[in-house]
Structures are given as C-alpha cells and as structure tokens.
C-alpha cells in the first residue's frame, strides 16, 4: 500500500512580475517516505481549465507553470490535481501565486476493498512552522479483560493497526493504517511533539484525512480547527494552549465516525467506552446453600416485593408520587374547562397544506419582485444603479468588520450588504453586457438589503438571495465572510440551480473518447469537461457516463468493474443514476479513474448506443413510477478521434428514441470535426470545437440548447430540487426565476427556502399525540416525515415514502393518488413504530391500528401533503380560554423566566418553577428559533395569560411568530392558578417535596402544546422540546389496559451521572390527561422528577425477599436495561447497562421463556439497523439457574420490572459462564435471518450500519418491508444567543427574606453545564449568573 504526498516548497519561483509562475511540487510515498516518479500533475485555474501538466521525475518533482497574464486578469488561485495508476486521484484547491508556497497534498493508494477485508488509512500532514507532529491511535481491547493498545512513534504496531512512518522534519505525512478493525472504539489524536509552548493557533496548520477502501476513497478531510476562535458573544474569551488535538473516534462495531475536533491536555489512558462489545469475565463463586423455599415460593415472594415496591416508589405516598405531585397535577387538568377539538383527516390536510402553501408563496413573491425589478432595468423602464454607489457590495472587503453572527445563517453575515462577484470566465471588464449585468446585480442587492425595507428586515426568516447572469456576474445576499478566491471561483453558469432554471428535470448521458488518439493533456481536458457537466446536475436529474473504446471493444459504463471493486454495483451499468450526492460522487470517481486505451480511434457509435439504451430504460421507469414529472434527454459527446460510422447509422440510432434525445458534440480536434462532420456531426443539435482551455466550461452549457430554452418560459418561477446547504441550513430548495430581456434569457434569480421553514408547521405542531403529517414530491421522495430528524439535522440520503409507510393499503389505496396530485382519503390498517424513549436503546412499541389517510397537492408548489389521523385524535379536547373558572389576570403571581440573565425573576427562586416555551408554542416556530431573546421577550412571555381574552397573548414582533399560541399559555395557567384563582398550588407542592426530601433534585412538567415548567429555575436550550425527550415519550407510550380499565403507568429511566455532583440519579415520570384521568382523553403532558439513585437502595432492600441475605434484587426497564443493582450504590454506575452485562445466565433464561424478545427497525437518516429488546411479563414468571432460582415481576403499572436472584446471583455452570455472545460487528449484523434474531447478539442492543443502494435509492436490508422505520431522534439543541445580562432581583412585592434568598442548583443529568453542588450548597442569584454563562447549554433532565 502506498500514499503519495505533495509538498509545495517554501519559496515558489516567480519568473517576472505577473508573468509565468512555477509551482515546484514534490511527490512522495507516505508509507515509505520515498520519492515517486511517473505521477501526473495538473494545474487548474479559477475558470476550471487545465493550464499546465507535468510528470514527476525520478526524484519525485513536478514543475507546474502558471502562464503569464496581464495585471488584473491573472488567475489568483489554482488547484493542483495529482494522479497515478494504483493511487486515488486527489486535489488541493486554493493554491495562490506568491502565497501558498508550502502546501502538502495527500494521494492515497488504492486500498483493499474486498468483502473480507476492511482497510482505513489515516494521513496526517502539517506546515513548516513546527518540525514534528505525532499521531496517536488508541486501539480498543480485543476482550473485556484486555487493555487498550497505543499506536505512536514509541510503539508502531498493535493488533489491527500500525504506524507506517514517523515523520519528524516538517510537512509529514505521518500515516496510520487500520486493517480489519475489531469491535470497540478507535480514538485518534495529534500531538505537538516538543512544542515548548507552541500552540495550535500559532501556525501548526495540521490536516487529517481518512480513507477507506470499502467506500471508494476519501471519507473525510479535516483541517485543524482554531483552538481559540473569535467569540460569538461578549465576555466569552478564554485562551488555551493545549498540546493534543482529539480528531475522531471510530466505532468499529457500527462503522460510525464521531469527528470530535477538540483540544485536550492529555491522551486518556484507556479506550473510549461504547456499549458493551463483550461480556465481562465470570468471577469464580461458590453456590450458596441458602434455601429459597423452592421456585413457587420464590416467585410468590418476588411478586409480593414488586407490589410493595410499586406503592413505595410510585404510589400517592411514594417518593415518586409525592415529589411529582402527580395527583395534584392530574386534578388541575381534570378540573380545567375544555372544549371540543374534533377534526377530520381531510380538514387536517387542508389546514396544513394552506400553511405550507403560504410559506412557499412568500418566497415566490420575493423572487417575483426581484425578477420584475431586473427586467425593468434591462428594458429601460427603471433606472440602473451605479455599482460604485454601494462600496460595500464587493466581496473583497474585510467582512469581519461588518459581519456579526446571525443564527438564521449559522454564521457571520452582514444583513445590510451583499457580495458582488465576477467569475473567472466573466465577460471582460468594461464590456457593455457585463456593465449592464453588474448594474442589475447591484440594484437587486440594494433591494434585498435596503435597511428597514430590505427583505431581511421585512421578513427575518428570509435566507440566501442571489442572482446569476449570462456574463458570469453574480450577487449573493447577505454578505458573508470569504476570501478573494470566492470572487473568482464562483460561476453561477455551472451550478445546479442555474442550469435547472433553464432545463428543468433532465437525463444526461456523457460520452468520453477513451482512445489513445488524443494526447494526455487533451484526454485530461475531456475528463475535466465531463466533471463540469456533472457539476451542473441537480438531485432531480439522472445521469451516466460512458467511455468509448476502440473498434470491437465494449464501452465502459460506471459500475463496469463491479466484479472486482465492491464500491461499484452491477445495477449502475444498466440504468441512469439519480443524482444524489452519493451517485454524483460515484460518477466523478469513475471519470477520475478511467484511463486511455491504446486504440487509435474510439467507437463513438457504440458508446452512444449504450447511452441511448440507458435513456430508454429511464423513460420506461419514469412512466411507470412518476408519470406527472416531465424531463428532457441529452447525449453529450466529448471526443478527439474519428467517429467510425456512417451518417445513416447515426440517423437510425438517434431516431431509436421518440421523441429524440438532443445530441451535443464537443471535439477537441478541429480537423476531425471538419472531416467527420458529415457522419456524426450532421445529427448533432450542437457541435463545436472546444479548446482545452474551454473544456472545463463550454460542455457544461448544454442546457442552453433550443430544446431546453423552448420550455423555460412556460415553467416560470419554480422550486429546484432539494440539496444540502453548504452553510449549515440543512435541506433547502431554491425558488428560481429566469430573467428576460425581450426573448433572451439574461440570468436567473434565486431565493432559498429551507425545508424547516417550509414544513415547520408539521415539524413543530404537537396538536395531536399519535397523528402526523408528511410531505413528498411527485416522485415519492420524502421532503419531511416524522420518522426523519428535524430538517436541518437530516444528514442521510434521499428516502422514498414507500419505505416509511409500509402497508398494502398505503401502497394500493393512497400512494397512486398522492403522487399523481389528486385529493382523497382512505382508511388503512397499518403497523407503527411508536417511540418509547431513546430509539438507540429503547427501540419502539409496535402498534397496529386502523387510521385515516388524507392527501392533497400543496397549491403553488410541486409537493403533496399526506396526513395520518388516528381515531383517538379525531375526537379531541383542548383547553378553553381561559381554562380556569375564576381567572383573574391581575392576581397572577409574577413568573420566573428560565433564562435568569434576562432578569425576569421574582420572589424566591427556590419557591418558584421557571417557565419556558418551546418553538412549537409559537405561531412561527422557525422565526422564534432564529431570534436572540431579550429582556422584553422574557417579561411578556412569562406574564402571558388568557384571563382577559386574546389580548393577553404577547405580540413578539415582526417575523418572530407574532404570538404565543393560546394552548401552551392555557396549560401554564392551569399550573399557575388554583381552581378558584388562588396562588400557585403546584409550585407549593413541588417546593415542599424538594425541601422535605434531599433525594428529590428537580421537578418538571412538559405539555403536549410546548410549555415546560421546572423547579429549580435553569437555562434551557432554545431548541429544547419536552415532547421529544426520552422521559416524555416513554411515559406517553406506557398506556396500560386491563379489561375495561385503562390508564397511563409510571416510567423510570436508567441511572445517569448528575452534572452538579449529586451522584447517580434516575428520572420518574407519568403522563396526565385532559378532562379527566381516563386514558381515552388526550394527553395533556408529562410530569417528572429526578431522584438520587442511592435513595432506591433503602427502598428496594426493605421489600420482603430483597432484604434477605444471599439475594440480589435489581430493577429493569422495559428494554432490560438495569435501573438499579446493589453494585450501583457502591460504585459509579454506567449508563445503559444491559442485563446480559450483569448476569448473562438470567438474560438467557428470560430469552428462553420469551420474556425477553428482540426487535429491529431502520434508521433512515443514519443508515442503521437498530435492534433492541423488549421485556414483558404481565404475571410473575421464574425458573431455575445453575445456582438458585430467578423470578421476574412487573412493578405495578409502571414499565419497571423486579428481577430477584437467589444465591447471590452466582453462575457456576461452565456452559453458562461461556455463553456465546457476539459484538455488533457488520458481519454479525448481516447474519440476522429475520426479526427473531436469536441469541447470537445477546450482549446488548445493536446498531448495524447498512449500505445505501444508489440504484434503487434505498438502504439495503430496509427495502423489503420487513422492518419499520425507527422513531426519529430528538432534535439537536442550541442555547440562547448573547442576551443582555441583567442580574435578577426579588420581586418588589415579595416579603423580605429573613436571610439571603437562595437557590438550589438544578440537577439535570449528563451533558449539562458543569457545576459543583456536591454538598447541596445554596447559591444566590449572582452566583448562578457566574455559572450560567452566555453560551451555557443545558440538556434538561434525563430531559
């Protein structure tokens, strides 16, 4: 295995002024450090043209000479592209004249990619500031009793990993290879060796690349991040100088990378822990002679202990019942006034469709305004702007002086300015058309950023707005940070959004002449043209690439090497590929890897014939699957040799498709074009000689063919295909509109629409508990569905709706009408995966029910909406306004706002719970999420009520959702007021429980409508949504039925370490309902409490047999994870400990009696098949072990089980000690035969990675309907942004305290803001401010 490394010398040779410029490049083998000869080096300029090529000498040197040019017209930045047979081609962008004189590029050898071999290559490189960086890899142990192995310069080999070379003299590379990794987590660090105080920000310039043979090349490239970036908020500055960069963790059991990118002081002395990959060794023990009275007696004793435990933990007088005040909360919602909230599926669909249509129409209006303004300037009916009148429009200005962090853009932008850019191929400066396009671009920039009247001020939810013109001039607003290269490298005319505005959906065949008739430079230029064409394709397009070979030879199609290269698939050879990012990358890689053959001319006819056949297959597929979508076909030929066939043969071939596909010929040989024009050329819709300098641009302009232009005006303003925004906005679509002057297209307007903005009413609406909605396009591709994450968190490839809605009724009765754009309803019986907590561990509860589907097109968009309405949601209830009989707004107590820095604090904090409203509580959720809260917001939100009618709902201001919804405000009123309007009894109850029991740490309530109250007050991340947290979902899922009786039981989480020093804690939670405690009423919310794990020990050990010697009693949740075990009290408990880890024989016994069963679902975002276990025992069960007996009994109606083992839980039988247990490796996962996966994966729940099928656009293994879609993971969280800090003070009407007011710090579970309250110390508000800094992020509770 070999790796090439390119090193640009410190001082490149400058021939003369702005004349020619020589980049001298050294090519090395990273694995040996030896120079490599014969590597092909190419230099590409900003216009995507190859301007120089060279072959490395025997000493490994390449000289690439940038040609001379005039001042002001010189390409500033270049890209070096290096390739050699047996290595992956790679490139490095941004090389700059006279600046980037010391740059290193990695070129990795073709790693093994067989089914039985997995190879990862990690390559470290750096600059010339420090001579020696060292890579450190922690290799996990191969067994539970083993130790990790450390690969570094002092030990260069460990099982499955080795350091190939230790570089100590600048640049690197330093390479580590991992071969056939075993189960566990591999952690990679970089160290500044002998740094002597040198810091990462002082010029280290390290870079790490990860390559995979089984993935076809580079997985990831990470430039070293800044250790001390510019702070987003005032007062955040903290300068560090740490010596280690923790780059990534690689979980070999799942194949997942966690790119950590953090700086640390030291490398840990042990491997990062994951789920148990192996069962621990069994310690020898003596089987006790203790008599348990026989199995029957043991089962009876266990059942009795479970019954007593239910009352002590969850009963009205139990620790959970008292601390939660569950009866008081339920009583309040039972007594509150409700009104009927019935709905129909069709009404539900119509309401949501109208909201989505309105949101989309806002962007269409913006695009229409810009289009009209541009066309008025072009035709002279409006005055043009002078580009020089807006000096801040140039993207070359130092934006850091004007840009501020804007959460709506996830970065630093200037909302009052825009970037005016000129692509490297833009018309010459001073030309009439360029001047006209520049004036139009400036005027549009002025419209967008016109102060209080600009688009960003009128509608703060507006995202990127831009215009591209036919001369290459372009404008983008708002202005963002960038560099000079951005001004020249970006050309809108070779971007997908621009091409799609001309062409609509298209199917593109690229034919490349692969004969030896052309020179190496000409062949590289043709490949550059093919890659430029691929760069214009949108996600709705299809494409394939065919390399023509000599006479009689079979053309090469992407995927032709599937027999020897597992990164390809046979299906890629016989169909068009939808241009997902995966497929586009594959076609680019195919173009890179193909070489010339030795023939003197290529059989272009045979290659076109293959392409025409692929287009025919695509037409048949589209007609059968999405007939409402029209598309156009084009064949683009890049050739330099003879065309070999007669005109009549080409005529017959072209007429084989009806209607005919457009044919385009780009010949790099003028003589051949002239000589052979009578054969192939006469059938071309466009033919032209294309010089090497134009090959990276001209072929990509195929969309200007008359066949495309003929339909552009009829399309008008439309939505582009969805794509992932590079700035971090998640999935977006562009509303694009062609701009005309007379009948000529002058350019294209674009306005981005995030999917979150488009579907926020679906994502955040919590109106129904079990019903939901989704949006698809006409091809059945999912825009959003509740089985997927929030749109800005979606990272996976495209998903089909038929994979998420699995039932014959949906496929036969719903999907045809849904995709065709009609309106209708249908009743369908379907199975659903209902979340019962964290899907990674808790999996799902399988429920089968009859639901009503309704669907309709969304007016003004290419999308369709579908809704699923359950019977329990169709006859709903909601609170009236106001919900309290004696509601007196003037008598309402002052409220504490969750963000104490904003100053809305009154009374004594330890007597008050704080109020927080999630985004779903606002009429425009995404607007609220992107808004930095202020003191004024805190005041009006916390004081909101409906006692005086709707006037009590605060107006949040332009673009911020306008109002809080009445539902969450009414839920808050129910908790704030007693039945007769008296003071808050819930706060009194919660405070009393916390004061009387030091084991009670935090109490909270999350409503279905978006309200969250918690005591003590704590900062909550802006995107926190209680309804998506584990404790809430588990409580709602725990609905029990016993004959005619039904209700919601209590749930308890597994232990986690409290961030404030209180030790291990657990969460107890229970759902409450509206209008009465009957389970037929809708869920109002969930009340929860955090208690110390240690408090459970005293309770459990008092329960009958659990208090006897030689007995082990443990509590399990419904997934067989351990909530309590006696060992947890004496030592720190690990989170998510599966039963088999503690007692494999008991787990095996439960599986044997079908009390512990395994199921699985598909995570369509991460591409994981997730297995989990379900524990079920309605009546007491039990059996014998190799030592003593076991018994299992459910604890009341809670999803908690008591497992009692006699004889100290000793395992003595050798076959039970050595019980087979396999980790979740890919091979083991692939051995799953069915949903009943058997005992081979007994160790723990598994997350098994799947391969994505780019042909069928599905995850392999998830396309046969056997597995349901996993419930979506909770949304990512972010904290409030830079609010004004104001110290809270007691309410002026409050009675003066006898001592300083105090506040107990909250206990909120793992991942929260670190603090120290280990002694239960009291802190006053000013001390709280010191702990809750400007960017403190807290993830609430088990919350």
Seen as an oligomer or otherwise, the chain set is single chain
Number of strands: 68
Radius of gyration: 33 Å
Unreliable residue stretches = 1-17, 390-398, 1233-1239, 1284-1343
Shape: globular
Q: What percent strand?
A: 25-35%
Number of helices: 30
Distance between the termini: 48 Å
Q: The biggest beta sheet, please?
A: 8 strands, mixed
Q: Estimate the helix proportion, in percent.
A: 10-25%
- Summing up helix and strand content along with how strands pair, one would put the structural category as alpha+beta
**Mean pLDDT over all positions:** 81
Explained architecture:
With 1343 residues, the chain is an alpha+beta fold. Helices cover 22% and strands 27% of the residues. Strands 46, 47, 48, 49, 52, 53, 54 and 55 form an eight-stranded mixed beta sheet that branches. Strands 25, 26, 27, 36, 37, 38 and 39 form a seven-stranded antiparallel beta sheet that branches. The longest helix has 34 residues, at 345-378. It starts with a strand and ends in a 12-residue tail after the last helix.
Annotate the secondary structure layout.
Elements: E1 3-7, E2 13-14, E3 21-29, E4 40-44, E5 50-55, E6 61-66, E7 77-83, E8 90-96, E9 104-108, E10 119-125, E11 133-139, E12 149-151, E13 157-158, E14 161-165, E15 174-179, E16 185-192, E17 207-212, E18 217-223, E19 244-251, E20 256-258, E21 262-264, H1 294-314, H2 319-324, H3 326-335, E22 338-342, H4 345-378, E23 404-406, E24 411-414, E25 419-422, H5 432-448, H6 455-458, E26 465-469, E27 473-477, E28 479-480, H7 484-489, H8 496-503, E29 506-513, H9 520-534, E30 542-548, E31 556-557, E32 577-578, H10 581-593, H11 604-625, E33 632-639, H12 647-654, E34 662-667, H13 670-675, E35 686-689, H14 706-715, E36 718-719, E37 723-724, E38 731-741, E39 744-754, H15 755-764, E40 772-777, E41 782-784, H16 801-804, H17 808-820, E42 824-835, E43 844-857, E44 863-869, H18 871-874, E45 875-879, E46 896-897, E47 914-917, H19 925-929, H20 935-942, H21 966-976, H22 985-996, E48 1000-1007, E49 1011-1015, H23 1030-1037, E50 1039-1042, E51 1045-1048, E52 1051-1052, E53 1056-1057, E54 1064-1073, E55 1083-1092, H24 1094-1100, E56 1112-1117, ...
Parallel strand pairs: 29-30, 29-33, 33-34, 34-35, 46-47, 58-66
Antiparallel strand pairs: 1-3, 1-9, 2-3, 3-6, 4-5, 4-7, 7-8, 10-15, 10-17, 11-12, 11-16, 13-14, 14-15, 16-19, 17-18, 19-20, 19-21, 22-45, 23-24, 24-28, 25-27, 26-27, 26-39, 30-31, 30-32, 36-38, 37-38, 38-39, 40-41, 40-44, 42-43, 43-44, 47-49, 48-49, 48-55, 50-51, 52-54, 53-54, 54-55, 56-57, ...
């Amino acid at each position: 295995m070999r790796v090439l490394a390119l090193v640009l010398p410190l001082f490149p040779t400058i021939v003369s002024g702005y004349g020619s410029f020589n980049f001298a490049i050294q090519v090395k083998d990273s694995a040996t450090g030896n120079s490599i000869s014969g590597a092909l080096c190419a230099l590409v300029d900003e216009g995507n043209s190859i301007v120089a090529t060279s072959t490395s000498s025997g000493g490994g040197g390449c000289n690439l000479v940038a040609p001379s040019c005039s001042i002001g017209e010189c390409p500033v930045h270049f890209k070096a592209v290096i390739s050699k047979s047996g290595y992956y081609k790679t490139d490095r962008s941004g090389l700059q004249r006279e600046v980037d004189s010391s740059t290193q590029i990695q070129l990795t050898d073709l790693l093994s990619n067989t089914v039985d071999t997995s190879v990862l290559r990690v390559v470290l490189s750096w600059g010339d500031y420090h001579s020696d960086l060292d890579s450190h890899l922690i290799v996990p142990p191969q067994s539970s009793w083993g130790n990790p192995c450390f690969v570094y310069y002092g030990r260069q080999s460990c099982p499955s990993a080795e350091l190939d070379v230790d570089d100590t003299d600048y640049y690197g590379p330093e390479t580590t290879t991992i071969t056939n990794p075993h189960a566990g987590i591999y952690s990679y660090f970089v160290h500044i060796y002998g740094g002597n105080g040198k810091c990462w920000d002082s010029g280290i310039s390290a870079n790490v690349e990860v390559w995979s043979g089984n993935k076809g090349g580079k997985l990831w490239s990470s430039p070293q991040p800044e250790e001390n970036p510019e702070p987003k908020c005032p007062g955040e500055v903290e300068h560090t100088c740490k010596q280690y960069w923790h780059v990534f963790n690689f979980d070999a059991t799942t194949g997942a990378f966690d790119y950590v990118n953090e700086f640390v002081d030291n490398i840990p002395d042990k491997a990062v822990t994951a789920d148990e990959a192996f069962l621990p060794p069994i310690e020898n023990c003596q089987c006790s002679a203790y008599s348990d009275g026989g199995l029957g007696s043991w089962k009876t004793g266990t059942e009795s202990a479970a019954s007593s435990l239910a009352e002590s933990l969850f009963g009205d007088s139990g620790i959970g019942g008292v601390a939660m005040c569950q009866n008081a909360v339920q009583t309040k919602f039972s007594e509150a006034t409700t009104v009927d909230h019935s709905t129909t599926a069709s009404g539900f669909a119509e309401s949501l469709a109208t909201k989505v249509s309105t949101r989309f129409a806002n962007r269409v209006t913006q695009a229409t305004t810009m289009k009209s303004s541009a066309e008025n300037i072009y035709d002279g009916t409006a005055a043009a702007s002078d580009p020089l009148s807006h000096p801040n429009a140039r993207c070359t200005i130092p934006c850091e002086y004007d840009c501020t962090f804007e959460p709506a853009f996830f970065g630093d932008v200037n909302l009052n300015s825009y970037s005016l850019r000129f692509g490297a191929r833009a018309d010459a400066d001073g030309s009439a058309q360029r001047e006209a396009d520049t004036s139009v671009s400036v005027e549009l920039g002025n419209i967008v950023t016109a102060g209080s009247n600009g688009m960003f001020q009128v509608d703060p939810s507006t995202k990127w707005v831009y215009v591209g013109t036919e001369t290459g001039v372009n404008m983008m607003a708002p202005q963002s940070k960038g560099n000079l290269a951005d001004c020249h490298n970006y050309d809108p005319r070779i971007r997908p959004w621009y091409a799609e505005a001309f062409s609509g959906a298209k199917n593109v065949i690229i034919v490349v002449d692969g004969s030896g008739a052309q020179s190496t430079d000409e062949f590289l230029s043709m490949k550059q043209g093919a890659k430029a064409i691929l760069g214009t394709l949108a996600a709705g397009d299809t494409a394939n690439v065919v390399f023509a070979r000599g006479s009689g030879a079979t053309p090469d199609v992407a995927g032709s090497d599937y027999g020897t290269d597992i990164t390809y698939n046979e299906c890629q050879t016989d169909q068009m590929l939808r241009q997902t990012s995966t497929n586009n990358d594959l076609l680019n890689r195919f173009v890179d890897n193909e070489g010339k053959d030795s023939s003197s001319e290529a059989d272009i006819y045979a290659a076109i014939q293959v392409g025409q056949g692929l287009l025919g297959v695509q037409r048949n597929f589209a007609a059968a699957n999405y007939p409402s979508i029209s598309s156009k076909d084009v064949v683009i030929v890049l050739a330099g040799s003879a065309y070999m066939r007669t005109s009549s043969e080409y005529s017959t071939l072209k007429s084989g498709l009806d209607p005919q596909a457009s044919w385009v010929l780009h010949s790099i040989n003028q003589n051949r074009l002239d000589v052979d024009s009578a054969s192939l050329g006469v059938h071309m819709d466009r033919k032209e000689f294309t010089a090497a300098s134009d090959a990276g641009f001209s072929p990509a302009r195929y969309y200007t063919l008359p066949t495309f232009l003929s339909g552009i005006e009829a399309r008008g303003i439309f939505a582009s295909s969805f794509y992932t925004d590079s700035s971090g906005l998640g999935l977006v679509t562009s509303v694009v509109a062609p701009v005309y002057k007379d009948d000529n297209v002058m350019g294209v307007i674009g306005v981005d629409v995030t999917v979150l903005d488009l579907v926020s009413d679906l994502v955040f609406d919590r109106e129904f508990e079990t019903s939901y909605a989704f949006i698809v396009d006409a091809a059945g591709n999912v825009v959003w569905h509740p089985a997927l994450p929030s749109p800005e968190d979606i990272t996976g490839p495209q998903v089909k709706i038929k994979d998420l809605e699995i039932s014959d009724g949906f496929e036969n009765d719903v999907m045809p009408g849904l995709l065709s754009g009609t309106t209708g309803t249908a009743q369908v019986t379907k199975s659903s995966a209902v979340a019962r907590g964290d899907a990674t561990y808790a999996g799902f509860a399988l429920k089968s029910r009859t639901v009503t589907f309704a669907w309709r097109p969304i007016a003004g968009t290419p999308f369709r909406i579908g809704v699923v309405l359950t019977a329990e949601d169709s006859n709903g209830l909601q609170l009236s306004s106001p919900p309290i009989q004696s509601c007196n707004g003037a008598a309402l107590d002052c409220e504490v706002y969750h963000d104490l820095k904003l100053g809305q604090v009154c009374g004594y904090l330890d007597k008050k719970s704080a109020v927080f409203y999630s985004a779903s509580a606002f009429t425009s959720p995404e607007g609220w999420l992107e808004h930095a809260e202020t003191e004024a917001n805190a005041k009006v939100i916390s004081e909101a009520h409906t006692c005086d009618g709707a006037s009590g709902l605060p107006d949040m201001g332009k673009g911020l959702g306008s109002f809080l919804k009445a539902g969450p405000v009414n839920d808050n009123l129910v908790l704030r007021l007693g039945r007769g309007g008296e003071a808050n009894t819930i706060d009194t109850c919660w405070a009393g429980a916390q004061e009387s029991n030091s084991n009670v740490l935090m109490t909270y309530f999350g409503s279905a409508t978006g309200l969250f109250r918690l005591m003590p007050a704590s900062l909550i991340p802006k995107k926190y949504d209680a309804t998506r947290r584990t404790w809430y979902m588990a409580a709602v899922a725990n609905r029990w039925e016993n004959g005619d009786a039904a209700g919601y039981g209590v749930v308890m989480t597994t232990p986690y370490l409290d961030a404030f020093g209180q030790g291990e804690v657990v969460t107890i939670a229970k759902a409450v309902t509206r209008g009465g405690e009957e389970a037929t009423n809708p869920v109002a919310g969930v009340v929860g409490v955090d208690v110390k794990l240690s408090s459970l020990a005293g309770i459990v050990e008092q329960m009958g047999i659990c208090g006897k010697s030689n007995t082990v009693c443990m509590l399990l949740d419904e997934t067989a994870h351990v909530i309590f075990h006696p060992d947890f009290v004496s030592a720190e408990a690990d989170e998510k400990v599966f039963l088999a880890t503690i007692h494999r024989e008991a787990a095996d016994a439960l599986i044997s009696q079908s009390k512990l069963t395994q199921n699985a679902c598909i995570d369509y975002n991460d591409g994981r098949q997730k297995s989990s276990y379900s524990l079920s025992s309605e009546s007491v069960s039990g059996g014998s072990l190799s030592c003593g007996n076991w018994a299992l009994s459910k604890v009341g109606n809670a999803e908690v089980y008591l497992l009692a083992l006699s004889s100290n839980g000793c395992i003595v039988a050798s076959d039970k000690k050595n019980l087979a247990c396999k980790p979740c490796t890919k091979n083991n996962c692939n051995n799953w035969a069915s949903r009943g996966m058997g005992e081979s994966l007994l160790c723990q729940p598994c997350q098994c990675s799947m391969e994505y099928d780019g042909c069928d656009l599905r995850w392999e293994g998830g396309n046969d309907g056997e597995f349901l879609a996993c419930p979506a993971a909770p949304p990512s969280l972010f904290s409030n942004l830079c609010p004004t800090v104001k110290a809270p003070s007691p309410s002026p009407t409050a009675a003066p305290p006898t001592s300083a007011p105090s506040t107990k710090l909250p206990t909120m579970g793992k991942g929260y803001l670190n603090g120290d309250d280990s002694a239960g110390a009291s802190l006053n508000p000013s001390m709280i401010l010191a702990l809750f800094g400007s960017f403190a992020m807290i993830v609430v509770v088990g919350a």
